[in-house]
Fold Heme chaperone HemW.
Amino acid sequence: MATRITIAPADALQRGPADAAVRFLRPGELRLEALPPLSLYVHFPWCERKCPYCDFNSHAPEGPIPEADYLDALCADLEASLPLVWGRRVHTVFIGGGTPSLLSAAGLDRLLGDLRARLPIDADAEITMEANPGSAEVAKFRAFRDSGVNRLSIGIQSFDDRYLRPLGRIHDGAEARRAAEAAVSVFDNVNLDLMYALPGQSLDDCLRDIDTALGFGTRHLSVYHLTVEPNTVYAKYPPTDLPDDDLAADMQEGIVERLGGAGFDNYEISAWARPGSRSRHNLNYWTFGDYLGIGAGAHGKLSFPERITRQARLRQPQSYMEGALRGDASAESHDLDTAAIPGEFMMNALRLTDGVPTTLFAERTGLSIGSIARAMAEACARGLLDPAPERIRPTDLGRRFLNDLQAMFIG
Ligand code: SF4
């Protein structure tokens, strides 16, 4: 039977992190032979302005960003979490937001020093930082690199002023180009985030953005279909001139042709990489690896020998900082229902074009592959899943109807 244990903020962590660790080690229903690789996610919750389509935990600050206080809070949050990851090495770090490039060079240097002093981070760890063109300068990028950041991910979205304006971005096309140039001049490993199906966008303009991005010679691109998410300004006042489904499908087809022709591999729904440049951090998410999430609103997933837990931190920056300094930044912490685990694994694994080795299911979930055998057989029979036994891999049809395929594994 499924177990669901909610640990209120005032419960385990308030009685001390060691208590919390003991609770997570008590007997459960799963049998994990080994714990998965561990990543660290650090959330920075401020942006210069809130974009109308954005549903991330990002806030326009009312005054100066309280950088020093926030770094203190991150440190306290990490220290309170350490008993949950004792003895585990960190393979990748992702500093996301929000706009973490609003951090000063000294602030970022302190943050990475604080992390390294408390966690065994691999010497060759991928350390990614997100940046936005409005807050991008070569000198700052160099300082970030010298502090240890080795991968930069820039939220370009478009190089065209006509489409950046309705997105509410603070940068224009010229700044987007300058930021991409600055990034590739400093970092070997750069990702550019782009969006398509933007209000009023034509097929030619969409592909021009792709060509412009390719011109910078980056090794990784993330290309997202603009979606109207609940609880955003766009949800309340939807743009009236969004491309229709046919045009959006033509854009998608054009993107596949352009990027495929340029030697990029579409290894995940929205992620494109040249050989050897896949995002190690994101691959850990998609292969159901573990991640400790610290910072306002950060989410985490941690495995223990007999359970898998999900955690979330308090969302509002002020409440988070106060909570973290009291030793209790948790908004939620619960064991995954045993019945929900196969669905969670498959939601992630099926995003990958090559899927995952079949053996990974038992390794990461602590459950037998038999628990999804019937759904797998049905998905194979419908042509959505590759019948080869050694991998769980969506077919081309399965990738086209990914939502339907994923739904087959949700109990
Ligand atoms: S810059 Fe990014 S994180 Fe910030 S509000 Fe805009 S979309 Fe959201």
About this structure: DSSP finds 16 helices and 14 strands in the chain. The two ends are 13 Å apart (CA to CA).
